[in-house]
Structures are given as structure tokens and as C-alpha cells.
Amino acid sequence: MAKEISDKIYSCCFTGHRTIPSEKLISLNDILTKETEKLILNGIKYFYCGGAVGFDTLAARVVLELKKIYDIQLIIVVPNMGQDKYFTEKQKKEYNQILHHADTVIYLSDHYYKGCMQKRNQYMVEGSTYCICYLVGKTGGTAYTVNYARKHHLNIINTANFL
Q1: Using CA atoms, how far apart are residues 161 and 11, in angstroms rounded to an integer?
Q2: What is the value of pTM for the model shown?
Q3: pLDDT tens, residue by residue, 18-49
């Protein structure tokens, strides 16, 4: 079941690039785990993830691992049915496993339309107090989402700053 809006103060969203250099994956996973666990220990319970490849997948895996220890919830916010249309078979398999193990999966649209990714990102930001991101550039969807989070006064943790 999706969290209530009053639970916003206990919520964090993730946003990041779809491509992560392979030499940074292990370090990024460790940093992401550490920063997510810090938030959990400070009362954050709900974690929004967009379900895309790259950072979203990494973040979802981290939350699922931490669920083995802590009473937290993974909420996957899917912009449209068929989001995995262009995923590789390996990515589709992992995506479906994540959806299966998530506490809640929210589909915002039954079809793709221009702007559906931004709508998904806005939904996650508007339901959160924290944003953990992997942002290395100043343009694109991740930069847009982090700027949107800043405008909504979220506490932003950029994991790229720790690498």
C-alpha cells in the first residue's frame, strides 16, 4: 500500500543516471548503502525509486538488501506500462524481480507520453523529504529532478560527491 502524504517526512526518493562507469559501481553501491542506512537510522522508512536501469536499479537493490535488516518499504513508481520495452533481457529480468519484491508498485500511466518521466520524478520528489542522487552533469533528467527537489526544499545527498 502506498504511504500517506503525512508520511512525507519519513520518505526519500532516488534519482540518477542510467549509465554508471563500471569502475565506480562497487564504490557507488557502498556509498549508496551507507547513506541510505544513515537515513533509516534517522527515521526514514519509505524509499521511492523510478525503476529505470542504472542508478534506479542499484538503489532498489540496496533498499531490498536493507529490508532484510530494517522495517522499511520500497515503492517503485513506474511512469508508464511497458517502461521496460527497450531493456535488455537481463535488465527485464532484474526489473521484474525488483517489482515482485517491492512493497508497492505505482503505475502513473498505462501508456508512454512525452513528459511521463518528469511526472514520475515530480511524484517521487513531492512525496519525499530527502533525495539521494547520482548526479555528475548539469543537464538531463537527473539534473532536472535534482533541481526540482531543490525547489521543493528536499535534503539532497549526491553520491557522486563521495566518489
Answers
A1: 22
A2: 0.95
A3: 999 999 999 999 999 999 999 999 999 999 99
